[in-house]
Give the backbone structure.
Amino acid sequence: MINQEKTISRNIVYRGKILNLRVDKVEFPGGKRATREVIEHEPAVGIIPVTEDREVILVKQYRYAVSGPLLEIPAGIMEKGEEPSDSAIRELQEEIGYAPRQLREIGRFFTSPGFSNEILILFLAQDLFPSRLEQDEDEFIEVVRYPFSMLDSAFLNENIRDGKTFAALSWLIANPLN
Amino acid sequence: MINQEKTISRNIVYRGKILNLRVDKVEFPGGKRATREVIEHEPAVGIIPVTEDREVILVKQYRYAVSGPLLEIPAGIMEKGEEPSDSAIRELQEEIGYAPRQLREIGRFFTSPGFSNEILILFLAQDLFPSRLEQDEDEFIEVVRYPFSMLDSAFLNENIRDGKTFAALSWLIANPLN
């Protein structure tokens, strides 16, 4: 039996631009109480864009929270009223300048469920064609293409420091496209 | 060229039990300024424990932040003074009651670098032997064994809602052990 935790009180400590912080009191079966710190975050999408030349298109950008640049799959926060597939297509157009003729969801997961409710919906995008949308004005992104032949565990271990990208590229290695 | 963001001011808004919230002012090259919300979190470890019977041992537990139970690889926050491999061995003993004779790091990644500095160090654990440490008193964990033969993309898509576990099991599918 999986233990439920009953909410005794909820307290939003901070209401921000991309996240809220909530500090709740909870009660376990048996009566013991504890504090739970929760980051509320909008859902996000990530996309694995693959070309007919058997490349995956990644983006490199500075990530302030980790004080350095990261190589990642294109990704972003869903906007109000968007379906996940709409967000995926928009992010691809903004970040790499392509739209997909084929798009399918391959998984959805919580990025850090110990403290955050952020969910990431992961797509595979194929049959790409050029289509550009303006980037957000405070995004500075470099596009990097990798041939499938380079994608192996050694590549992941050396080059990938982003969790969703580690998951996405491991998935691509495990599911070779023909 | 990857854009750096220069810190103009740092402000810790909340100092908590498992996380701190910092709200910084930053400046882009060119002079434009913005706010960055950052969750500071200690590093964590995750472990893929595999048995000689070609099973992977997972744990099911209630995750308050996402309001439900999740099936995950054993994992936890590193304690002060611990090396990552020490944390991995401790978490295995606490969560599944085994210790490994073989342990190797297969990757390390940020779980949600858009807003958090949490890093997860991922290990493969083999050649397990029984060895029990007490669980943290507010952890309630169910151990679940899966044969390798069940691990495929359909399994991930249906059963795995945790990012590090999606990454870990994709890695295992991509790197079949002999």
Remarks:
- Chain A touches chain B through 71 residues (CB under 8 Å).
- Chain A has a mean pLDDT of 95.
- Chain A has three helices and eleven strands.
